[in-house]
Amino acid sequence: MPASSTARLQLAGAAILFSTGGAAIKAADFSGWQIAGFRSGVAAVALWLLSREARRSWNGRAVLIGIAYAACLTLFVLANRLTTAANTIFLQSTAPLYLVFLSPWLLKEPIRRQDLGFMAAVGLGLALFFVGVDSPASTAPDPVRGNLLAVASGFFWALTVCGLRWMGAAGGAHGAAAVAVVAGNLIAFLVALPMALPVGNHSPADWGLILYLGVFQIAVAYVLVTRALRSIGALEASLILLIEPVLNPVWAWVFQGERPGLWPLVGGGTILAATAVKGWLDSRSTSAVVRAAELPVEAR
Predict the structure, then answer these.
(1) CB atoms within 10 A of CB 266
(2) Which of 12, 14, 81, 224 has the fewest CB atoms inside 10 Å of its own CB, making it the most exposed?
(3) DSSP 107
(4) Rounded to whole angstroms, how far apart are CA atoms 67 and 61?
């Protein structure tokens, strides 16, 4: 099989694994802090074992980026426990909007004319989530607070990407993504641990979900992405990975019977469409700060 075909299958597999996060987080009979901490603890160990880059190139900058990534991971889990999986993934997908604002300040990258249309489209999509807030439900007991946490998760993901670009501009991008991902998961585990104790009694199935989330939904998916990006372009990769936000609410509907509202679906569709168009426009640009293979590309 050609390398590009293998890479596409790896990316599709990674996107499917990433997409199961919302449903698995909702299914596990743990508190949000327990899931956030234990999932990240398992992921840190798994990534350390699976990725050679994660065992070297440690430095203060990569750990600093890991702090932002830890906030992103933790907020994603907490949001999923409070609002729908669809709202969480779509609102976190607004990260490129914050990146447009952060880049001139942190990276001295000017805002381009094409960015203005993207900002308007994502801003419109974001506003639609708050037009008619979903009523509380068993799988989404506090939609307003969950939506706000999901927005914050997207902001910290934008900070993570900014940090990696910052390292790339300084000539220190090699291996930085792997180190930042491991450091972020380790920090998330340590920060969440005090809120996760005491653990209490839980079934083997619940612990199995924690292992699945850490090993497969984060670690294996990340390894698949990094391998695939050696043989496939950034634009095609970003489009294939859009499978994740599409499937994420589908799994929550299948396993939890969760049905997102109309306005969040319209808003999410607007955000994903704007992101796809921006990826295409960016691929035609000659400016690139860091190779696509150095970015973790997925927050979850």
Answers:
(1) 15
(2) 12
(3) I
(4) 10
CA distance 71 to 184: 8
CB atoms within 10 A of CB 194: 9
Q: For the residues 263-289, what does the mean pLDDT come to?
A: 81
DSSP alpha helices (H): ranges in the chain? 3-19, 21-27, 32-50, 60-82, 85-92, 95-102, 113-128, 143-169, 176-196, 204-212, 221-228, 234-240, 243-256, 262-283
Number of H helices, E strands in the chain: 14, 0
Cα torsion angle, 51, 157, 298, 161, sign: negative
Cβ contact 174:294 at 8 Å: yes
Structure tokens given for 48? 């350390």
**CA–CA dist 116, 255 (Å, integer):** 39
On whether the CB atoms of residues 71 and 185 are closer than 8 A, the answer is no
Distance, CA of 84 to CA of 231 (rounded, Å) = 35
Instruction: Say if CB 165 and CB 23 are below 8 A apart.
Output: no
Range of lowest pLDDT (235-239, 242-246, 269-273, 284-288): 284-288
- Torsion, CA 23, CA 26, CA 27, CA 29, rounded to 10: 160
Report pTM. 0.91
d(CA 123, CA 72) in angstroms, rounded, equals: 20
Longest dimension (CA), the chain: 55
Question: Which residues have C-beta within 8 Å of that of residue 110, sequence separation ≥ 6?
Answer: 104
Residue 219 has pLDDT above 90, yes or no: yes
Alpha-carbon Rg for the chain in angstroms? 18
Distance CA 65, CA 82 (A): 26
Distance of CA 138 to the CA centre of its chain: 24
